[in-house]
Write a structure and sequence with these properties.
The complex is a heterodimer of chains A (about 110) and B (about 120). Chain A has about 110 residues and is mainly β. Chain A contains no helices and eleven strands. In chain A, the strands form two sheets. In chain A, strands 2, 4, 5, 9, 10 and 11 form a six-stranded mixed β-sheet that branches. A five-stranded antiparallel β-sheet of chain A has the order 1-3-8-7-6, with no helix packed on it. Classes of the chains: A mainly beta (about 110), B mainly beta (about 120).
């Protein structure tokens, strides 16, 4: 089973700061998802990537397949970015064994 | 269009009671997933449907858990003889295509189950 580790577990920053959240996994994957979960449980998919880099607004996600590592960056952070950010991986080799999730990074952006 | 919806949003059950949790995926989405999220933890995979076929139920924690999607759209997760350790948020997600793990998943708001 893939082991997914995220760091940091908790992060508090000031508005405007550049934020980096890291995700590492133990076994080769076919795709990696970054998800955002707000209080109350709603989960929104931010990115799905299998190589390189993707950008959407102030969010940037990168993945290094060889190093089994991905990062999520937030530029010009804002209090509304406060949420739990979850990394999830889809294992390679086919098979319907679900996504494996990290425990999440709890981000608080203070005004 | 509408996103993934789940009902009820909150459920309190007495230990030993049976519960049924409903998921309405996005219309036309082929793949449907159930996840369990304990407090302070990331979600964990329970089971996966492609249309009406349950292709993987390896994540179901015990035989008290049962899921179905008889017509390939709405799905129900049933938990029999609930135990306190079943208390969690149950998340449903759907994706448009087959092999949904390689496809963006759209999550419902979850059902928070509390077993007393």
């Amino acid at each position: 089973k893939n082991e997914v580790e995220q760091s940091p577990q908790n992060l508090t920053a000031q508005e405007g700061e550049f934020i980096t959240i890291n995700c590492s996994y133990s076994v080769g994957i076919s795709a990696l998802h970054w998800l955002q979960q707000h209080p109350g449980g709603g989960i929104v998919s931010l990115f799905m990537l299998s190589s390189g880099k993707k950008k959407h607004g102030r969010l940037i996600a990168t993945i290094n397949i060889q190093e089994k590592h991905s990062s999520l960056h937030i530029t010009a952070s804002h209090p509304r970015d406060s949420a739990v950010y979850i990394c999830a991986v889809a294992n390679s080799g086919g098979g319907a064994d679900g996504l494996t999730f990290g425990k999440g990074t709890h981000l608080i952006i203070q005004p | 269009g509408a996103g993934v919806s789940q009902s009820p949003r909150y459920k309190v059950a007495k230990r030993g009671q049976d519960v049924a949790l409903r998921c309405d995926p996005i219309s036309g989405h082929v793949s449907l997933f159930w996840y369990q999220q304990a407090l302070g933890q990331g979600p964990e995979f329970l089971t996966y449907f492609q249309n009406e076929a349950q292709l993987d139920k390896s994540g179901l924690p015990s035989d008290r858990f049962f899921a179905e999607r008889p017509e390939g759209s709405v799905s129900t997760l049933k938990i029999q003889r609930t135990q306190q350790e079943d208390s969690a948020v149950y998340l449903c997600a759907s994706s448009e295509r087959l092999a949904g793990f390689f496809d963006e998943q759209y999550f419902g708001p979850g059902t928070r189950l509390t077993v007393t």
